[in-house]
């Protein structure tokens, strides 16, 4: 069989995979799980509005309109869209915050006269590097203030303003903002790139709009209320008396979001994640340009990532997934550059990125070692190749060699190490373990002791279940119906197409000598891929789709490296197939979310609505739940007090988490997310209430509690105390213990 025939067969096979994947997605996800969501006004009208904005963007960039006029209209249309969805001010504030961090980093590089600081092109990598430098400096100074007991919300906001103003002046050291740079470049790139830029811009606008109404459980649990569950009266290191494990994860992202938190609107906090989503796409684009020269495929791959529900829809939450992924990818990018350019400054930036990622999602403690191990394997491969080449007299493969160290890179790495050690110190100070809740048995064996009121062994959080593998993987790829946490943040199924394309190219289009070279990134990322396959296979229902963001991006990068070496006819087929995924996948992103909300908003020609709607929405939610009087009573206290409550049904606690107190619910405290031993006896309950200085108990009038409940016995006894105040509401009652437990210091 000739090579041309094989190529045709490969193209047909790729087209079949594309068709089957999209048809199954349409049938099982859009017309299956999300059938009802697909026809709601927020989806239909919100989707049409986004489509119109996309067409306007394309028309502006593709026509011969004056460059500056096109940019002004582009910005005006985006601004009107954001204002109509009541998120213009939060979006601009989050953008200004990130631009400020970039300016801070740029200024520090200027002070150290870092290489490329005066680069007139102001490349994208320059801005990404400045962000790394800036956030590392900001985090270092903010943590120092917290160590000194000066880490309040207002103090950290003042710190941010002082740093940004100091970085901007004198004006001669000021650099063009990243957003302005991107808009300027958008008028100079190719037509296909302009369409891609328009598409990505619309996906970002979609996520900004979602921040106004998509409130997921986890975000309300901890991400959107740092003023209650992260920072105390003095700092990030204060003991708040909380029990649930989510409050003791690495908290660098929540700490970084403090200047945008507690502003009377949840969208300020969530918009920060949308900007980080944009930065992540820029970073992957820069990485793609390094491993692939095929501009159109690179653009299509960025569009694919921008429309992947598991990635895009995490932008409109307050979770740390995108923050973690960004710094993992940044660390990986600089490690790759270190191998290519032999500049030891890159190893410092790589390690700095990895350090910051460890302050995000706890899964980074798995990803980072696996990535480093993958590069170590690649290093061994290169060394072995060099020895063989030396023996045969061939030209050796390039490997990193020592060069003069860059002072700014060493400073950044030193600060990043300080930052992650501070994050670990917080966990140790509050829990007694360097990391919590993972590796509990290991810490105990090493002599660490868990601190009250937490539960010592938490290793049961590694979950798995037995399943029929073929059926399971068919559901993962084509029909995740019933896999609740996988389908609500779906990772997509285009990875199958990419892997098939890689298989065809390597097997049929590359010479023997080129095959291994083309698979270098697959070799480097193989530990991550293997672990991902293992966890998707063993986790109940495949786990949460957002667990696999890093693996998805690595698959795109490694595949692009191989596709770049393929024949042009196959590359065209791959490009067309990738474009076929965009309409279907984008619609899934529109109708799905981590909160199970759908669409953006029903269309209304109202551009004067307030950007501060969260308080109104929260008040309505609390009123509907029968908590209005209790909320008014709680707001009378100037301080945020600890509160424990009993709800009538599972899931209702998401409402009570929005009360003006530091709330934890009985059900979670008594579960593996808390410490059941705290509620085993009346003595244990009293000890915990005293330790946490609990002031309030909020009890549902419809709650069904066992007669021998130690907690309710204590509550009833305290309710009979003359000091205790009782506040009645329609569905709940509140007991105010006043200062009965205040004499016990935390």
UniProtKB/TrEMBL annotation:
Keyword tags: Cell membrane, Glycosyltransferase, Membrane, Transferase, Transmembrane, Transmembrane helix
Membrane topology according to the record: Multi-pass membrane protein
Domain of life: Bacteria
Transmembrane domains' residue ranges: 7-30, 50-80, 87-106, 126-148, 155-172, 192-209, 270-288, 318-336, 366-384, 405-425, 487-508, 520-539, 545-563, 575-596
Main subcellular location of this protein, as a coarse class: membrane
Protein location: Cell membrane
Protein name: Glycosyltransferase RgtA/B/C/D-like domain-containing protein
Protein source organism: Paenibacillus oenotherae
